[in-house]
């Protein structure tokens, strides 16, 4: 069950007005039609203008977004039933006038760390005063998370989910990794699984402080009793493959053990330094290699040759004042790129996908169209999902209405709260 649509500011009642009493047999009368959409992002290039020149986004190529102007969308139950021009829209009981604004697929945030307690304001303040980011800061959050009650952890998670939902995020992945004991990791995943199907076991976030002198013993725990306790709640297994965390051999052992238990791999790879993470991700058919900030040409070639998505997390580079990942290089090589928040209290404390889009366009070489695609369809690809991240008949009715005539405004007007309404599984929730 995913309860992003719970919370005090949500409502199940779309702001509908009466529709013309025109008979139409293609959709149920109880459906909702959103009309007068200035620009509709479908993420299906075959449906609109701006078809790309190829299946990859070549520099100077067309839009991957499948844009439809003066569009309408029909929502029936939790699915998209119809899309097209407003003038051809079928009649329904419920009608919403978009007023010449843009509609986009709900954002798919495929990388977050939201089961935590505590605060790292002091660490951020110190870093912005000149100290470099190191992986060890995670221990601060581990101590606070272990000390928190279940209720406190869930309340914190729910708070950030509501915050993300108001900003257009309709699907999110989240991870454990701040417990690092069998009981605390399983607890984090149990709490997360009550709110999303995209739950990731990250017992291998850092070596537990309890095993500081015995990292091999910690890998045995992560691949043994901790995996046994966590696997029932998770779909994915992740490892922080980085100096100061886990090396390539440890990461391979952890992900291989997870695969044997039916968990699919994804990897924190090549964030702080060059390393083996990206090529290991491709070798193990990980759904995603996340961060990809320090890449050799062999890393880029490996990503281009496989089905592993490169998930870029510019909130982390922003918040640690680090070098940006080179999205342009990956796109030009034919790599599928996703864009996510990495929302966590240490290195990227933003739940805002629009903020990440603005960073990606300003500093990572992405066009506004590519950034929007990566934050929706790209995120879906990083979760190996085909039912979300697009607005086409049969897709899940997850969409956001922008207080702007075009999705380009998400980068053009950075920091402005442009998401004015959100539908999730067909219900207006924000
Ligand atoms: Zn992360």
Could you describe the 3D structure shown?
With 430 residues, the protein is an alpha/beta fold. It has two domains: 17-106 and 390-428, Urease, subunit C, domain 1, CATH 2.30.40; 108-382, Metal-dependent hydrolases (TIM Barrel, Alpha-Beta Barrel), CATH 3.20.20.140. 31% of the residues lie in helices and 21% in strands. The strands form three sheets. Strands 1, 2, 3, 4, 5, 15, 16 and 17 form an eight-stranded mixed β-sheet that branches. A seven-stranded parallel β-sheet has the order 8-9-10-11-12-13-14. Strands 6-7 form a two-stranded parallel sheet. The longest helix has 17 residues, at 150-166. The radius of gyration is 21 Å and the shape is globular. The structure holds zinc ion. Zinc ion binds at residues 111, 113, 268, 342.
Summary tags:
single chain, 17 strands, 21% strand, alpha/beta, binds zinc ion, 430 residues, TIM Barrel, 14 helices, Urease, subunit C, domain 1, 7-stranded parallel β-sheet, disordered N terminus, 8-stranded mixed β-sheet
CATH third-tier fold name of the largest domain = TIM Barrel
CATH H-level superfamily title of the largest domain: Metal-dependent hydrolases
Radius of gyration: 21 Å
The structural class is alpha/beta
Small molecules in complex = zinc ion
In terms of DSSP E residues, the strand content is 15-25%
Summed over residues and divided by their number, the pLDDT gives a mean of 90
